[in-house]
Amino acid sequence: MGAGVERTEPSPRPPAASAAATEAVLGDDDLLREILLRLGFPTCLVRAAAVSKRWLRHASDPAFLRRFRDLNPLRLLGFYVTSLQHHRRLVDFVPMPPQSPELASVLHRGCFSLNAYEGPAIRFTVTDCRNGSVFIGTFNPAENVFIDGVHTPLHPARGLVTVPEIQIEKDSSCYHTFLFLSKEAGGGLYLYLYY
């Protein structure tokens, strides 16, 4: 700045003018929808929907939710790494750094460890992860028992939900089975392919 020029702070708006400007923006349904679209996280959208019935109506509109999902894709919280140690398979969850405060709180509340399903004789593998669900295959060699199940880290109280055993005709000379979580239905639908 040049010499002799004084810098002045802008004068604060009177409360009535500020309220009128806020109402002009938030009272316009088109502007409100555009603001809600840019919240970035579903958790923020849920909080915004609790403001009023009008905000809930916008936030729960199916067309709005499709646009919200398009603009705010799912974020990767982390991934599972399988390693061998002393002839034992270990599965560890590795969170993605850095996380925003919203996602960090989700990671803090969830139960991503699979240690609860481990036993001295049980071996398990992560078969698939999708939409907040982890598909686990377990094998108990002492009893020669295979069990497939789904662990939901964000809802640990559910425990391991066992998937029914696949019935395959035994007279087939060669067959393979593939178990994976469906992309639809939030990973709650299990699809089996075999040949």
From TrEMBL:
Pfam families: Beta-prop_AT5G49610-like (PF23635), F-box-like (PF12937). This is Uncharacterized protein. It comes from Panicum miliaceum (Proso millet). PANTHER family: F-BOX DOMAIN CONTAINING PROTEIN-RELATED. Residues 126-192 form the F-box protein AT5G49610-like beta-propeller domain. Residues 29-67 form the F-box domain.
